[in-house]
From TrEMBL:
It comes from the Bacteria. It comes from Nocardia callitridis. Residues 24-464 form the Amidase domain. Transmembrane segments: none annotated. PROSITE patterns: AMIDASES (PS00571). This is Amidase.
Amino acid sequence: MEWNYRSAEQLSAALRAGEVSSVELTEDAIAHIESDDKTINAICVPDFDRARDAAREADQARARGEDRPLLGIPLTVKESYNVAGLPTTWGMPQFADYVPTEDAVAVARVKAAGAVVLGKTNVPLMLKDWQSYNDIYGTTNNPWDRTRTPGGSSGGSSAALAAGFGALSLGSDLAGSLRTPAHFCGIYAHKPSFGLVATRGMVPPPVQALPSEGELAVAGPMARTARDLTLLLDVMAGPDPLTHGVAYNLALPPARHQELRDFRVLILEEHPVLPTGSAVRAALNRVTDALAADGARVERHSPLLPDLTEAATLYTQLMVSNVAASFPAQQYEQLRAAAAGLDADDQSRDAAWLRGTVFSHRDWIEANNLRERHRHGWRQLFAEFDAVICPITPTPAFPHNQGPNSWEQGIDIDGVEHPYGDQMVWAGVATMPGLPATAIPAGRTPEGLPVGVQLIGPMFEDRTPLRLAELLEQRIGGFEAPGS
């Protein structure tokens, strides 16, 4: 029987019923990877020997009567997570031999839940692209079209899931790094509320794994079904046991509604910074029609929506100020001189980017205070609506675009070139205020490429967009294997 495209939920049921063993599932997955990953290159660090050991241990545990949430389920982990005994490089050649000795918190949690880790998945250099390639592990291709990117930075994970290499994967997100790969590969991903999943051990080498939540970035689940996202999130979520976990226990509230007809949804189709491509617009309309057909309240405008242009600028500033903190002193001084030379009236996105790289602490505090006002605006909006549905990026997966000047070559939106970096503005709608966002498949282009949308929910009400994702999967369909 073919198990590689079954959901984790289905595999768990089969394991409990004795229809299959974890060893059989693991050997099936390994054989599938060895056969098909030659042209996809999703699994950059295989860990097959330890996976076989973990599968045997899972079968023995089940024989003793144990039953954990992920017991015996094969999955993969994004290369940027520390896994004891495996290299963590973030694609940087100088750290090709860096091997941590301790698992990241999220990795330790899935192992404790009984998961079988097949290996690690490919990423772009320093996780800074919507493509997944680097000089250590090469290029990961989209299983739907090998000439196109699977997304980034969790592109190896999305490609692995689309290709049937494990039922689940652990990813992360700062500028859409969970959601964009899901959109490009036709799978599901969830960017949790900021701080919901402890990120200790999801750090670049050789940075020490400390219990700090950093800025904007989150760790989250990827899967081929919406219900599997919830399954994996429940394992990953919770405060770091070294800090908030000393005093707090996680208690996520239930979804606001259980049926589509009860949801109140705001649809955002246009962003003031860049246009939405026709393929993505069609996917949004498909979701909108399904909601309306089931009696959901659907609106396309609201005066409660925080200013998206201001939000995009703020997101850029907060993100680049964090990134620039690791720049060498000489590079930082050059940027500071360039920012000082800007015209005071220059309010372009390029200017905002440059100013953000050299933010003072005072500047950052002012920006953070503005972020809190935006968060309050979102709280007011979510008193009127249960979810906001919008694009993830303006286009489906684009062709590989590698090289030192790839960011200068732009992105084609219906035949018109736009700045490559502006792809992140839709991701920032949820990232800047720290809101949860679930990426779902929403159809295919006439050429057969997957197209997804994101469901944004109220902060720390992650089960609301996840439940909406599950209901829409039932209504419009979900993951389809490439070539199906």
